[in-house]
Amino acid sequence: MAQVPNASASITSADVARLAGVSRATVSFVLNNTQAHRVSEATRARVLAAARQLGYVPHAAARSLRAGRSNLVLIPASASAIGGLVSSWLDDLHSELERHGYIAVLHAGRYGDATAGARAWAELRPAAVLALDGDRLTATAADVLRRAGVSALLAFASHSVAGVHTFSFDHTEVGAVAAQHLVARGRERIGVIMPSERGLDAFAQPRLAGAQGVASRSRATVTAVPMSYSRDSAAEVAQSWPGLGLDAVFAYNDEYATLLLHALQDQGITVPDQVAVVGADDLVPSALQRPPLTTVRLDLPSPALVADTIDALLRGTDAPEVPPTDAVLVPRQSS
Amino acid sequence: MAQVPNASASITSADVARLAGVSRATVSFVLNNTQAHRVSEATRARVLAAARQLGYVPHAAARSLRAGRSNLVLIPASASAIGGLVSSWLDDLHSELERHGYIAVLHAGRYGDATAGARAWAELRPAAVLALDGDRLTATAADVLRRAGVSALLAFASHSVAGVHTFSFDHTEVGAVAAQHLVARGRERIGVIMPSERGLDAFAQPRLAGAQGVASRSRATVTAVPMSYSRDSAAEVAQSWPGLGLDAVFAYNDEYATLLLHALQDQGITVPDQVAVVGADDLVPSALQRPPLTTVRLDLPSPALVADTIDALLRGTDAPEVPPTDAVLVPRQSS
């Protein structure tokens, strides 16, 4: 194994100042593009040349300490909770934020409660925190972040928290759209898959509530069915299916729906004749299942609009109008 | 939309010092657990109580500037390049690093060349950079990071770069294992899917080379077939299939393999009779395809061992022995 070299060789702004024959403060003014300080074009060119020659990269944290603000946008999200739908959206958001001069990082920590999470995020002193799962940004968590100087808090959430800029995203709607469709197709005993994986409850509970709301206004009943994202768990659920007496299932998302679809078929249970199956997210492979999977598509606001909103909040200018996330049924042959 | 409060309300270590009646330096010694400075238990308790009362969270970057080291472990990886296999591994790695007192963040930036990427990562002054895709840590990129003071560079890679601690991960093996299996089953005209998505070339090229190596030692030929991760692209490839005259395909990974499997079947091409299909990653749904998908499973080293290695490099102690990533064939009915 190769040896990692000692960090003592690292280049600092003092090295750049020495080579350019200017003060360290001048290096900082030039590299951080501080407008408040006048630096001649010749000096600026000398500093930039010295920085280039030494391979000096400005230090985002030091810059943020000096400037009193950071350019870090923190997105708390475990890697495994990010589905295929959100991942390319996140990549695009990253590019859009970069266009504004921000660095977006994903913080994958898993914390027992919202405040512990907020403390961990606050340690990095981001300029902004964007919670994809709004319920993690409770009022107390928001307070921890504000006290640490985080100046923009944003969340995709169904209801707003004081001081948090909310992109309306109602997971209740996802469950409601799925249940309405199943009721319209004459199904009356609807199972709703509840993933056992940690961190998904914040999405699964409102989806369940949405289905329950629809059921309460119809003849249908809703039964919560726990399942984890594994073939064994799907097989177990499928084996217990006849005893549950359910004629439809909203399976949390397309990934769980696909697993369950196959497990039901392996048990000789026909889809959609005996059980109608609905997923969510409209992932690429869902239309290719046999039968093709009915799903609920989520239309997220564009990454450019979300990045513009973060930038506006940090600059204290007016944030653009962002349309709410829509839940749209994509009916196919599995239901 | 709720208004984001002004950052001027943020609590600093000066506030903690004032409330505890100690100097700011003492607050720093206590909260950063600096061993070099003696602080009485009574003072320590007073500082901790004041910090708790005010809801003060230490500033990781400020701490790192003072201590001359950061506790940030940066993992460059676009969200969409992280497959189902790697995402839960990453979540576990995050927990293991946290156990050692490090914060792991994913940096999703997409950069045209390795050096531009390294500059962006260096701005955050991480203690360590772990590249899942070893080819992004070129010698020049490593140099940029070292000059910025990053003290541990690690990569999953097939060959080592000077100054980078390498976890052996040979994507050539993945392609070779797939091709050996197809040749052993009597296939002679093997297609290898090359994803058009940016950032996947670093994995796809060595996989192709591995298949070509096996073919060169047998009667088989290998043909690279470009495809993007969409139903349209898979359908196009399937439509062109008869003209390609291929009797087998190694489809980069299980996600592409699943798309292509369905697209081939939609064209009336039977799997495995007319075309044998092999994926990689052994994702959960792969065994549930009709026919179940043959795949190449990658056995990554345990997150605990990788976290221990990062910690050892940062402490300057001996790194543990980490077994290389193995590529293991999981034969099923698609081939």
**Which class do the helix and strand fractions of chain A yield?**
alpha/beta
Number of helices of chain A: 12
Estimated radius of gyration of chain A: 25 Å
Give the terminus-to-terminus CA distance of chain A: 55 Å
Residue-averaged pLDDT of chain A: 86
CATH class of the largest domain in chain A equals Alpha Beta
Largest sheet data of chain A: 5 strands, parallel
In what order do the strands lie side by side in the largest sheet of chain A? 2-1-3-4-5
Biggest contact: A-B, 84 and 85 residues
Give me the CATH superfamily of the largest domain in chain A.
Answer: Response regulator
Low-confidence parts of chain A lasting 5 or more residues at pLDDT below 50? 1-8
> Helix and strand succession of chain A?
HHHHEHEHEHEEHEHEHEHEEHE
Shape of chain A: elongated
Mind telling me which CATH architecture of the largest domain in chain A this is? 3-Layer(aba) Sandwich
Task: Explain this structure.
The structure is a homodimer of 335-residue chains. By secondary structure, the first copy, chain A, is an alpha/beta fold. Chain A has three domains: 13-58, Orthogonal Bundle (434 Repressor (Amino-terminal Domain)); 72-169 and 301-322, 3-Layer(aba) Sandwich (Rossmann fold), CATH 3.40.50.2300; 171-299, Rossmann fold, CATH 3.40.50. Helix content of chain A is 42%, strand content 16%. The first copy, chain A, is built from twelve helices and eleven strands. Chain A has helices at residues 13-20, 24-31, 41-54, 60-67, 84-99, 114-122, 139-147, 171-184, 201-216, 231-244, 254-266, 303-315, and strands spanning 72-76, 103-107, 128-131, 152-157, 165-168, 189-195, 221-227, 248-250, 276-278, 295-299, 326-330. Chain A has a five-stranded parallel sheet with strand order 2-1-3-4-5. In chain A, helix 5 (84-99) packs across helix 12, helix 6 packs parallel to helix 7 and helix 10 crosses helix 11 (254-266). The longest helix of chain A is centred in the N-terminal third of the chain and has 16 residues, at 84-99. Chain A is elongated, with a radius of gyration of 25 Å. The termini of chain A are far apart. Strand 2 of chain A pairs antiparallel with strand 2 of chain B, so a sheet runs across the interface.
